[in-house]
Amino acid sequence: MARIRLDHVTKKYGSITALKDVSIDVKDNEFYVIFGPAGAGKTSVLNLIAGISDPEEGDILFDDAYMNYVEPRERDVAMVFENYALYPHKTVYENIASSMRTKKYRQPEEVVDREVKRVAAMMNISELLERKPTQASNGQRQRIALGRALVRNPNVFLMDEPLAHLDAKLRNSMRKELKSMQEAFHTTTIYVTHDYTEAMSLGDRIAVIHEGSICQVGTGNEVYYLPETEFVAKLFGDCEINILKGCVTEEKGRTGIRLPYGEEVYPVPDDVGERLQCAGVKDVDIGFRGWAIDYSREPRKGYVRGKIYTHEPLGNKVELTVSLGDDMIRFIVHVDERFEIDEAIYLHFNMDKGIFFHSETKEYLVRHNEEVMRGGGKNG
Amino acid sequence: MANLKLQNLYKMYDQGNGKKDGVYAVNNLNLEIEDGTFLGILGPSGCGKSTTLRMIAGLEEITKGEIAIGDMVINDIHPKERKIGLAFEDYALYPPLSVYNNIAFCLKANKVDKKEIDQRVRKIAKTMKVEELLDAKVEGLSGGQKQRVNIARALVRNPRILLLDEPLSHLDGKMRQILRGEIKRLHKEIKCTTILVTHDQMEALSLADHIAIMKLGVLQQYGTPDEIYNDPVNIFVADFIGEPPMNLLPVTVQKADGGFCFLLLDGTRIKAPAKFHSILEDGQQYTMGIRPTSIVIADEKDYDAQFTVDVFENLGDERIISIRILEDFLTIVIEDMLVFQKGSRIYVKMKEDLLYLFDRETGERVREQGQRNGG
Amino acid sequence: MRGNMAKTKQTGQKLNKKPMNLRLRPWLIILPTLVVTLGILYPFYQAVFYSLTDYSLKKPVWHFVGLKNWLEMFKGVNFWHSLWVTVKYTIAALVVEMGLGLVIALSLNRKDNLFTRILKVVLIFPLMVSPVIATLLFKLMTNSSVGVVERFLNLFGVYGFPWTADSSTALFSVILIDTWVYTPFVLLLILAGLQGLPKSPYESAMIDGGSAWFTFKTLTLPLLKPVILITLIFRLCAAIQEFSIIYSTTKGGPGDTLMNLSLSAYRDAFTYSSIGKAVPQILVLWVIINFISSKLVKAWLKAKSANNG
């Protein structure tokens, strides 16, 4: 375990800049997720930490030691790839012990035995030690592979999209297994993924990376409820967040928003109104996730009229796409109702659940109840 | 306009040396599809869905049985005479030709008048939103664009039946969502009988009027999406449909305070719904099914079961509580903004009508009042 | 930072650039390959050098003569005659072999049964025979006293067809041999190409109602372009330099009829022992082949990418 730092790192491949002035600070024992779309630079970061490539500018530090140009095998990192590559002809015990029997890291047998048993207990696979990996379930195999990587007590544990090519069902259960084992790691872990559910579920903190730069670093709650830019907001959530344009109005001391679909002014909560007045903006972008939108089949006060463009029933929920003015609003409703294409539908946007962005810079301005959302909600 | 009927349909593949290999890829399939409706044939790979589609198209020989459109049996009719349009899974576009010529291929091959070709191609290109691509070569197109051209080409034939072979499987998340909506609107607009084949239950649920689920060549269940989702006839269907998948746990029946309870493998007890009381007996073994969304958080005053939280995930749009039952997880999906700690105790209630029982050996659904499935 | 398992060697101090041993490593790894490559190219450099001298295998002393050999070659008649023979041979061989190979491959590809499978094997036989042996067989079969072909032609009232003995029929005869030896090669490549074509566009074409000719014209031919081009590249490079067939039949004769550039260079080098005069002809061949094949490779790459729809 170690604190891992990237300090103003730039990485180029020929004329392509993969990483631009990137700084990352991973705390000791933290489970740090690097999240971004394909090609954003995630694997580059991992390669720099592992020592597979070297930065053009900037420093790599493990605790306070500089790792620039240090060979990968000197850095003591453990890297886990997709299919884990367990040795099928060796027992689980042998598999885990294998990393302690290589020439470089050879340990005496009593130490090997002690460590293997310790890790097996940690990963909950003690009963499997004498079996072969093929006799283990998927979840167990994942734990064996993790155990093999962790038994060396590496400085940092690197995982590059380990669940990427599994089918949806397996991906879900492996993710839960991983999370279940997280606490037992006792190692700084850096996990790369393009799947936002993995990022939110597993990460203590998430670094959102796009086109070689870090957009935001925060907990799952922070990136989801308090995204720093519209771009980050769009990356999280099953249905992409709906961004609407609004006009800030001031009437009798009360701040309100007018949407481009009608004359109605919607009042905003005090904390939001204060911040909007402070910022002095006239136009804002407001992001509404599915649960911030209410709908009605009948006209209602405060609801704007739209037309159902398409509806997709998915069992116990329906994914609706509503055409409203020039925009397409997409959201999921958890009901058992039936809808028709081109049917009229009335939508209401909850200002206290919306996220307000600066209309030009696309940066975060405010939302209602910031602190509560940072915490994620009440205890159940 | 007429219905499509598949009657006692069988398909066995040739081993190549003239001998059949003994396994039915499609085994006694019977389906009737009403004119203008949207049918989804759903199942894992190897279940016979693509084979069925290809038999309807005429690309595979029928081993036994009949396919008929209206009164006309089409078993021996050449594909080009069947008036079907097939959108291939790998798009099967003509690589050296432009988009325009891909769509026009069929019309040119049949020596249609040049003016009419132009009219029809442009009309269908407009419907499928590929007008600006007409002069482009197909190699440079994105997956979504290729799929539109694929479907446009199938439609320009003015088919009686439109066949879609896994239309969304090779597309990424966003494009998949967009195209799904477009196919839905397309069907409403052109009202053509459509058959979609897929392994993705989400596609079938969202697009089809009726779904036929197949496994290893055998039809498991045929019904509306609602029926398939809420009233599965066996474990295979219950497990296959629904995202996240249904919790399926082996249980043993136990007598308990004036009723029964289900004993999970790790000893946890779940109160059995009253509707099952008449058929339960102490010691029986079943597989219990309940969807993650059918379990609600309750309190210690009134609950059906209590669990210890193993994993709590906040995924933004929904929150997932996972409880470890030996090697499996029991999953609960909640929408309220609550936070749970690992190791904390929770009390839950199960929605009675949405709790299912399946026979341990056959996997068949066990219904209340001792009734077995009517089929 | 923990270290009781791993003995990490870093000092923790910052390194400002990659250590020398790491930077040299890539070069050390490819060193053997570099050496071998330079070794292979050495005779080439030698050849170019000798073309600027009057080096002869018969004389002990040689002198540097600059471009004299080259200028004499271009000014003389022999070079242009040899070039013309080379061109005639190449075009004739290519046209016949590509056409024949394409037609046979298309017919064989239509059906897959026992007959076509046997045919495929039989038609590849000539590839296993060396060109020299093929030439010998040809000479035997066309022999005016005992040849099978001679007997066959007799049935039609043709006696004593001169084959390679007469300059008007010599080219025809060697092209015949070349065709027999190399058409299977063309056939093989095109068949492989046909079998590598994607199947589903053809299924779509079947549903679309395309006739065999229409489908061939609009779909197959463009799709085959890369394979046809690559076969052309191979055959072209080989036909331009063809040596063994012509040498084993007539050594370039009768007279100079079949003296292409390869044979002419051979004669200069080994009959007249003047290396300096032989090399320029070979180098000209090299330039021609280089130029044409690079154009063809470009066309091939373009055709390949166009087909990735």
UniProtKB/TrEMBL annotation, chain A:
InterPro entries: AAA+_ATPase (IPR003593), ABC_transporter-like_ATP-bd (IPR003439), ABC_transpr_MalK/UgpC-like (IPR047641), Mo/tungstate-bd_C_term_dom (IPR008995), NA-bd_OB-fold (IPR012340), P-loop_NTPase (IPR027417). Keywords: ATP-binding, Cell membrane, Membrane, Nucleotide-binding, Translocase, Transport. It holds the Pfam family ABC_tran. Residues 4-236 form the ABC transporter domain. PROSITE patterns: ABC_TRANSPORTER_2 (PS50893). PANTHER family: MALTODEXTRIN IMPORT ATP-BINDING PROTEIN MSMX (PTHR43875), TREHALOSE IMPORT ATP-BINDING PROTEIN SUGC (PTHR43875:SF15). This is ABC transporter ATP-binding protein.
TrEMBL record, chain B:
Keywords: ATP-binding, Cell membrane, Membrane, Nucleotide-binding, Translocase, Transport. InterPro entries: AAA+_ATPase, ABC_transporter-like_ATP-bd, ABC_transporter-like_CS, ABC_transpr_MalK/UgpC-like, Mo/tungstate-bd_C_term_dom, NA-bd_OB-fold, OB_MalK-like, P-loop_NTPase. Residues 4-241 form the ABC transporter domain. Pfam families: ABC_tran, OB_MalK. GO terms for molecular function: ATP binding. It comes from the Bacteria. This is Sn-glycerol-3-phosphate ABC transporter ATP-binding protein UgpC. It comes from Blautia parvula. The gene is ugpC_1.
Automatic annotation (TrEMBL), chain C:
InterPro entries: MetI-like, MetI-like_sf, Sugar_ABC_transporter. Keywords: Membrane, Transmembrane, Transmembrane helix, Transport. Residues 83-293 form the ABC transmembrane type-1 domain. The keyword Disulfide bond does not apply. It comes from the Bacteria. It is found in: Cell membrane; Membrane. Belongs to the binding-protein-dependent transport system permease family. PANTHER family: GLUCOSE IMPORT SYSTEM PERMEASE PROTEIN GLCT, TREHALOSE TRANSPORT SYSTEM PERMEASE PROTEIN SUGA. This is Sugar ABC transporter permease. It comes from Blautia celeris.
